[in-house]
Write a structure and sequence with these properties.
globular; CDP-OH_PTrfase_TM_dom; single chain; CDP_ALCOHOL_P_TRANSF_CS; membrane; mainly alpha; transmembrane helix; 0% strand; transmembrane
Length: 255
């Protein structure tokens, strides 16, 4: 189930797991399993990937990273199929991703001789890449009446939806803000007029989708099985420079 109307869909390179995610969600839609259960499952897959990395089982790590990405898409699909939108589910999903991303980077640090400062720089780059992708994607979805469970600006606590506890929403929103707030502010300051732009071509969104978490994790897994683990951290640091390239392209297209 796409988050965009058909005429505005683009090739999302980070969303390769969507077809399998839809099949999983379809199987679960009449069961007692909820999107939160699926989020817990992808968190477990992420932890298994980390254990595999630390123990040198790189093919296993690649498989778990890919399946983690599939389940990361499946929780949202299940929420849409069951018509159970949830702020709690959305924030829990994002917080889980943030923690896992940090652990992924730290596990790479453990198996290489890279400086911890470079690892933290790569993590910051990883998060900024994902933030730019999400920023442009959410703008596109809101502009064309697509899925609107995410907000362009997460600058205030939302009201709890049906079946949610407001206090739980408040707590998760605060944690989410601590995790992602600094990155949101940086990306917004770099391209604050993106929401006013009228032209966001599909080819640009496809290029920016390489910043999506699914594609990032696929690259990490491939670097591991190809025996070039030492290049993972330098790659994500250098790849972050494309943030400025993509922003410049979007701004030039909307002059």
């Amino acid at each position: 189930m796409s988050k965009l109307p058909k005429e505005h869909q683009f090739l999302d390179l980070s969303d390769y797991g969507r077809p399998l995610a839809f099949l999983i969600a379809n199987r679960l839609k009449t069961t007692i399993f909820t999107p939160i259960h699926v989020t817990l499952a992808f968190t477990f897959c992420g932890l298994l990937a980390i254990v595999s990395i630390l123990n040198g089982f790189y093919w296993s790590a690649l498989i778990f990273l890919i399946f983690k990405s599939v389940l990361d898409a499946a929780d949202g699909e299940l929420a849409r199929l069951k018509n159970t939108p949830s702020h709690i589910g959305r924030y829990f999903d994002s917080i889980s991703d943030f923690i896992l991303n940090l652990l992924f980077m730290l596990s790479i640090w453990q198996i290489t001789n890279v400086s911890i400062y470079l690892v933290l720089l790569a993590f910051i780059g990883l998060e900024l890449q994902g933030t730019l992708y999400n920023y442009y994607y959410v703008i596109l979805r809101n502009r064309h009446d697509g899925d609107s469970t995410s907000r362009v600006f997460e600058n205030k606590t939302p009201n709890a939806l049906h079946g949610e506890n407001q206090q739980t929403v408040n707590i998760l929103y605060k944690i989410y803000s601590y995790c992602y707030g600094p990155y949101d502010r940086i990306i917004y300051s770099l391209d604050k007029n993106a929401i006013k732009g009228k032209y966001q071509p599909n080819w640009l969104m496809t290029a920016v989708s390489t910043f999506g978490l699914g594609f990032q994790l696929l690259l990490i897994g491939l670097f591991l099985v190809l025996g070039i683990k030492a290049y993972i951290i330098p790659f994500f640091i250098g790849y972050s420079l494309l943030i400025f390239v993509f922003i410049l392209i979007r701004q030039l297209l909307n002059k």
